[in-house]
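note to self: dont lose this again. the chain is below, predicted strucutre after it. 559 aa total, dont forget to put it in the shared folder this time
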Amino acid sequence: MNSISKLSAAFVFLTILSGCGPEGAPVDVTKADERPNILLIVADDLGYTDLGAYGGEIDTPNIDALAGNGVMFSQFYASPMCSPSRAMLLTGVDHHRVGLGSLASRLADNQRGQPGYEGYLTRNVTSLPERLKEAGYRNYFSGKWHLGHENGADPESRAFDRSFALHDSGGSHFANRMSLSGPEKILYTENGKPVEALPNDFYSTRFYTDKMIEYLDEDRGDDRPFFAYLAFSAPHFPLQAPPEAIEEYSGRYDAGYDVLHQQRLSRAQALNLVPGDIPYFAGAGVEADWSDLSEAERRSESRTMEIYAAMVDLLDANVGRLLAHLQDQGVDRDTLVVFLSDNGAEGHRLHHGLDPLHEWSKICCDNTLDNMGSDDSYVMLGPRWARASMAPFRMFKGFTSEGGVRVPMIVSFPKGFEGKRVFDGIATIVDLAPTILELAGAPSTGMELDGRSLLPVLRTDGVEAHSDEAAFGWELLGKSALRQGDWKIVRESPFSNWWDAESLGIKRNEWQLYNIASDPAETIDLATEHPERLQRMSQLWLEYAERNGVILPDTGRSY
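---
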C-alpha cells in the first residue's frame, strides 16, 4: 500500500443501454440521461504484464477490479508510440490520415509538408468528442494530450468543454516542469490558456485526477451524460515518484529482471492470456546479464524498477479514487469505463537514439542512487525490465513487433455484459471510437471509420470482432507490420541499429513471417516455408500503405 489509501477492489460499474439509438441515428437529447457516461482512461507506456490482472506483481487492485467486472482483451493492439495511438483513439482512423504519420519531432525530410505528416491532429476527420458533443454529451479532458496545441488541434478546438493538458510528449512529473530535452519548460494549458506555474505539491498522476474530479463536480447539476478522457503521463520516463511510494517496493526486484520476466510470463500463461509452452523473446542483446552486474549496478537497476512500480501503483490508486468519486456522486451505475495503454513499455535508454535527451540529462539531472526518482532525476526503464514488462513478446515501445503494439485493455460495463471474461480475438485501438459512438447513440454519418464496434463482443461471449481475413497494418519510423488471422509479417527499419538484431535472427528492411498463435514472441521466421503467404501479406501491406498515404522515411534515427 502507498500513501494514497488503497480502495476496495469491489467497485461495480453499471450503465443503462435502453437509451442507445442505432448507429448513425439521431438522438433525442431530452432523454440523454438514459445514455451512459463514458470514462476513458489511458496509461502512458504501461507494459502488457504490469497489471495484476495481466500477470504482474505491482499492487493494482482498482484496475484489476475493472477486469473482474468486465472484459479483458488479450490481443488488443495500439500503435508503437504515443501520439499516433492517441490520434487513432480519438478518431477511429489510421494515424497516417489524421496528421500523425510520424511524431512531429521525428519527421524525415521526405515526409515534411506531406499530407498526413503535419505533426498534429488535423481537422479532416471529425473527432470522437465532437460527435459526442453533437449528441448532447459534455466533454472533459485531463492529462497528456500530445496531439498539438495550434492549428485547431488543442482540446478546446476538439469539443472538450473543460481541459487541463500536457502538450509535450513527457517531462517531469513534479512541479518543476522539467523538459525532456532542454531548458525550456514543458507546456501545460487549462481551457486553452497557458499554465505558468504548478502547485508545489504537484504530481502528475494525482493532479490530473484532481482536475477530472473538479470538472465533474463543477457540472454536478448537469443532466447530460459526460465523456471524460483521463490521460495519465505515467509511467512514461523520466521515472519519478514520491519517496514514500518508492519505498513500498524497496527490495522487491533484487532478484533481477530475468526472474521477473519468468514470474510474469508464468502468471500470464496461468491466466490464459498467452499460450503455455512457447518460445519467448531472449532480449535486445545490448545489456549485461544480471549475474554479470556489480553490486552497485544491481542496486541501481533494482531502484529503477522500484520507481516504475511505484508509478504504476499510484496510477492505480488514483483510478480507484476517481471511481470511488463516481460512486459517491451516484453515477457509477451509468458509466462505461475503458482502460488501456497507448503502446508497449519503454525499453530504450537515453543513448539508444535519443541523443538530445541524453545530452540534456547530463546537464539537468542527478541520477545518483539516493536521488533517483526525484524531480531532478532522469531515469528510463531500459530493455531488460521492459522485456519483463512485455513478457513474452519481442521488443517494446517504438517497434511494430508484438512488444511495441500489444497492450492491456479492459472494458467494465457489468449491466451491459457479464464479467469476468477474457476476449482472445483481435481488436484494435481504432475500434474504440465506433464502439463508444454506438453505445452513446451518437451519429457516425459521414465518418470513414477504420474500426468496428466492439459492442457485439462485449455483450455476447463467443463473438469475434473481426473476420480471419481482416488485415491490420502498422508503420512508424520505417518499422512496418501486418497481421491477418494467426499470421503476421514484420519488417524492421534499416535505421534502427542500436540493438543486436543479427544474433536474434532478425533481418532489417526485409519482411519476416511469424505464426502469432504458436509463436507470439516472433522468434521463428517462417518466410521460407510459406513464401506464398508472405507474398500475399506483403501485398496487403502495400494496399494498407497506399490507402493511408504511408511515406517510408528516407532517413531515420536509431530509435
